Amino acid sequence: LCGNALTPKRGVFGKTGDLQTILCLACARDEITYSGALNGDIYVWKGINLIRTVQGAHG
What we know:
By secondary structure, the protein is an all-beta fold. It contains no helices and four strands. The termini are far apart.
């Protein structure tokens, strides 16, 4: 968030997850963001780095 506008940044998936279409986002403390992917997975981000994948959360 930059002022009142969102600015896109490319996330770093590493070996933690696969590139997916992201349908929703939720922000938490300490630069943690949760995103819901088209395949039902939930991705947990710290800054721009993917730190965890919850597989089949909406499967």
